[in-house]
Amino acid sequence: SFFDTSVVAQMTEDDLERLSNDKRVIRNRPKLEGIVHNAKMVLQLVGEHGSFELYLRSKTNFPSLVRDLRERFKFLGPQSAYFFLQSVGEEVPDHRSWTKSQL
């Protein structure tokens, strides 16, 4: 099944409580809250830019995009941002050089 951003963004405290007791999912409450926050952020950026892809393309370079993602989204480090951007087809620098620049 797909990650339905609009459904996740509408999760309530009761939903988070139920999920934090479900052994099939991450039960770390701050991470569950972060997932809801991140879904809301995606929807906000879609509203501001017309699509999430247009938001990604609005940044002038890879480092500024990673910085912005990390400021907006919870539980997103530099490596996670790198692999996320790579997985959605964004142009990313060589992984070895990126990793060295983050040390």
Question: Can you offer a commentary on this structure?
Answer:
- The chain is mostly helical.
- Helices cover 66% and strands 0% of the residues.
- The chain contains 7 helices and no strands.
- The termini are far apart.
- The relative contact order is 0.10.
- The model has no long low-confidence stretch (mean pLDDT 91).
Write a concise keyword list for the protein shown above:
single chain, 103 residues, mainly alpha
**Biggest sheet features:** none
- Give the averaged pLDDT, no decimals: 91
> What's the N-to-C terminus distance?
36 Å
Tally of contiguous helical segments: 7
> Could you say which structural class the secondary elements and strand pairing correspond to?
mainly alpha
Percentage beta strand: under 5%
Q: How many extended strands?
A: 0
The low-pLDDT segments are none
Name the helicity range.
55-70%
What is the H/E string? HHHHHHH
The radius of gyration computed from the alpha-carbon positions, rounded to a whole number of angstroms, is: 15 Å
Gross morphology is: globular
